Each structure stands twice: as structure tokens, then as C-alpha cells.
Amino acid sequence: MPARLPNVSVIGAGPVGSVLALALHEQNYPVVSVISRTGRDAVALARATGCKRASTQISDLSPATELLLLTVGDGSIAAVAKEAAAVKRLKFPKMFAVHCSGAYGSDLLAPLRRKGATVASVHPVQTFPASQKPARLRSKIRGIYYGIEGDAGALKKAQELVTALGGKFIVIPAAMKPLYHVASVFASNYLIVYLDTVAQLSEKLGLTVPWTDVFGPLMAQTMENVLRDSPAESLTGPVVRGDFDTIRLHCETLAKHAPQLIPIYAMNGIELARTARRSDRLSDESYGTLVETLQKAIASRPETKKVKR
Question: What is the pLDDT confidence band of residue 138, given thresholds at 50, 70 and 90?
Fold first, then answer.
């Protein structure tokens, strides 16, 4: 007979908790309790997963809980773990508890570990915008990686959980979790900053078609090039060519039309130049000239406080 799947309880019915609970429910994991700050969210996720226990109180966790998912904000994990550890009727030695923070390790779950639970951190390398419904986001976790961390026993259970979610895993040492999360932020949130600069400049241009139609193919091809080759091999444009006059023209134009974007243009230009030099596509002399040019642009930019954002 196949092994019985563990009973799941979720604390946090936001996008991450909802997507993971739905994915496990689809794999026939019994969801036995859903806890959320907002009763409406708890009830909605409970209904979607066939769960009969929804609450805003951690003390209402089902005594049958065997797999506990803490999908609350980073700043709440330790407090929630402490409160869950105080629920006397839970069978902690039979419990596997995980949080989904990318930046912090499983030590935040120490109160549960002291009660006998096995604990780990399991972070999905994916973005979960609140503007999209969990059912739509569900398809976005198929085949993704999860950063997992914990002791040997916890890692084995974390691997089983990731497999059940249809994902793959990488083991991240606890001390490296912050750096791993920095990489995740650059891969997601900071991309939005760059895309927003394109949107802002497109508005200045007065385009009669969506900016995504104009620049989308360029962005998509650049991403494809980087994923296929490497960042250094995919570099094109004035920085890698050492085209100083064009770069100065860019800075002058930004000073006139969008001075608030000079720092991000210049700092990115410096990083591009460093990448080009590291791959021997830019000489030390050209690198020095580019850095000096871009640093001057930052230092001489107009006051941004008068600029309407």
C-alpha cells in the first residue's frame, strides 16, 4: 500500500501559502487547517482545498497537523513559531514545520524544534504577485527550484516536499541564505526597476503604441541571449564598444528629460563596463574613462527634488 500522506496545516493564506496549499491538495495531501490574519482569506483557501477548519487564531491549528507551512512575512515567522509551539495538543515529534522565507534560515523555527518538531526553510524561487489569483499562479511553480535549508533529517523531508510540489531543489547553507535572497531580489524585484525606467522614458517619447510592443522583443531577445550564452557574451551597445560620445549624449539627454534616472543609468553603465572588462571585451583604459564619465554624470545631475515623478 502507498504511504499515507501527511496532514497539512497552513499559517498564512496569502499568495505563497495559497499556491503551495493548492499544489499539495492536488497531490491528495489532506489540508486539515488554514490559519490567516484575515478570516475571509482563511475561509477561501479552506474551501479551495476541502479543509473544514479555517480560523484567524493559531491556537485553532488541527491536532492532526503533521506538515506545518508558515507562509507569513519574514518579520512574523519567529513570533508565529513561538505561538504555534505553545499549542499544547499538537504532536510536535511527528511534525515537520517549514517556513518559506528566502532570507532567513530554519533557526527562526527554534521554538518548534525544541518541542520535537523537524524544521526547515523551503523557499520557492518564483514571484507571487498579489494581483494574480492563486489558481493562475499555481501553474507558475511547476518545475521551479526551491532553496532548502536545515539539518540532514530536515533536508530529506524538504526534498520530499519539493518533489510533491513538482519542483527541484538546491541546498543553501544557513549562513548563505541572505546572499541567496539578494540574488533572488536582483532576479525579480530589481528587474522591475529597469523595466519601469523603460516605461518612464517611453512616456516621455509619447509613443502611440504600448511600450511593451516596442521594446518587448528587445527585452525578450536579451534575456534569451543571456540564458543561452552568458551575461558577458550577450553585451552589446555603447558601453562594450567604448563609445564615450554616445554615453555622454545619453547623460546630457537624461539631464534634460529625466534627471532622476541618471544614477541608475550611470551605476548600471559602470557595472556593464566592469563585466566587459572582466571578459576582456574592454581595455583597462576604456574602463577607466567610462567610469570617470559616468561618475561625473552622477555628481553633476540636476536636483531631483524639483522633478515630478
Answer: confident
**What digits encode the pLDDT tens for the residues 273-298?**
999 999 999 999 999 999 999 999 99
Fold of 8-174: Rossmann fold (3.40.50)
The ranges of the chain annotated as CATH 3.40.50.720 are: 8-174
Residue matched to cell numbers 499568495: 15
CA of 62: how far to CAs of 58, 89, 168, 198, in Å? 9, 9, 29, 49
For the chain, the straight-line distance linking the first and the last C-alpha, in angstroms and rounded, comes to 63
CA distance 142 to 101: 19
pTM for the whole thing? 0.89
CA separation for the pair 258, 266 (Å, rounded): 13
Q: Write a three-state SS string for the chain.
A: CCCCCCCEEEECCCHHHHHHHHHHHHCCCCEEEEECCCHHHHHHHHHHCCCCCEECCHHHCCCCCCEEEECCCHHHHHHHHHHHHCCCCCCHHHCEEEECCCCCCHHHHHHHHHCCCEEEEEEECCCCCCCCCHHHHHHHHCCCEEEEECCHHHHHHHHHHHHHCCCEEEECCHHHHHHHHHHHHHHCHHHHHHHHHHHHHHHHHCCCCCHHHHHHHHHHHHHHHHHHCCCCCCCCCHHHHCCHHHHHHHHHHHHHHCHHHHHHHHHHHHHHHHHHHHCCCCCHHHHHHHHHHHHHHHHCCCCHHHCCC
Close Cβ partners of 190 (under 8 Å, ≥ 6 residues apart): none
Cα–Cα distance between 225 and 216 in angstroms, integer?
A: 14
The CA radius of gyration of the chain, in Å to the nearest whole number, is 24
